[in-house]
């Protein structure tokens, strides 16, 4: 399970005295623990992936801000954090892959521009954790033309 892998990697990073890596993994572990306490249930791999995605989104937002301030130290920290978390996500899909999936959904369902919501509902579970969700809507609009 992904949760155990994160914990094992956190312990290995502690033993190797990789403070930055330990810090990143502890943030994710804390979010996982918080979820489990609040929901009173063990978290699934999908839940762990959502937490990692949320952390990556926050790191990217902080990176944008650091770039605006030209803060090299924070930029380096953010990039390192992204490198640490990336291996825990499923293999990412390319834009071409997702575009092909959307085209297939549109063709098979005989959808029109009025069916945008139905298309989104069908594509989102297929790309969850494997593609930047914010890019889906513009792609669907473009393909519906």
Describe the structure.
- It contains 7 helices and no strands.
- It has helices at residues 2-15, 19-39, 45-69, 72-85, 95-109, 116-127, 136-144.
- It is globular.
- Backbone shape: globular
Instruction: Write the element-wise H/E pattern from the N-terminal end onward.
Output: HHHHHHH
Which whole number gives the mean pLDDT?
91
What Rg is obtained from the alpha carbons, in whole angstroms? 18 Å
Q: Which regions are unreliable across 5 or more consecutive residues at pLDDT < 50? A: none
The largest β sheet comes out as: none
Pfam family, one: YqeY
InterPro entries: Asn/Gln_tRNA_amidoTrase-B-like, GatB_Yqey_C_2, YqeY/Aim41, YqeY/Aim41_N
Keywords: Coiled coil
Coiled coil: 49-79
Key terms:
145 residues; mainly alpha; Hypothetical Protein Yqey, Chain: A, domain1; Arc Repressor Mutant, subunit A; 2 domains; 76% helix; globular
């Amino acid at each position: 399970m992904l949760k155990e892998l994160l914990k094992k990697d956190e312990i290995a990073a502690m033993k190797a005295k990789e403070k930055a890596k330990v810090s990143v993994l502890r943030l994710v572990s804390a979010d996982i623990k918080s979820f489990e306490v609040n929901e009173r249930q063990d978290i699934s791999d999908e839940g762990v992936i959502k937490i990692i995605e949320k952390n990556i989104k926050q790191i990217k937002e902080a990176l944008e801000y650091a770039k605006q301030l030209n803060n090299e130290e924070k930029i380096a920290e953010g990039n390192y954090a992204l490198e640490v978390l990336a291996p825990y996500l499923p293999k990412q899909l390319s834009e071409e892959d997702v575009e092909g999936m959307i085209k297939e959904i549109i063709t098979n369902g005989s959808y029109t521009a009025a069916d945008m919501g139905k298309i989104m509902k069908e594509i989102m579970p297929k790309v969850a954790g494997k593609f930047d969700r914010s890019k889906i809507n513009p792609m669907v609009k473009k393909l519906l033309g």
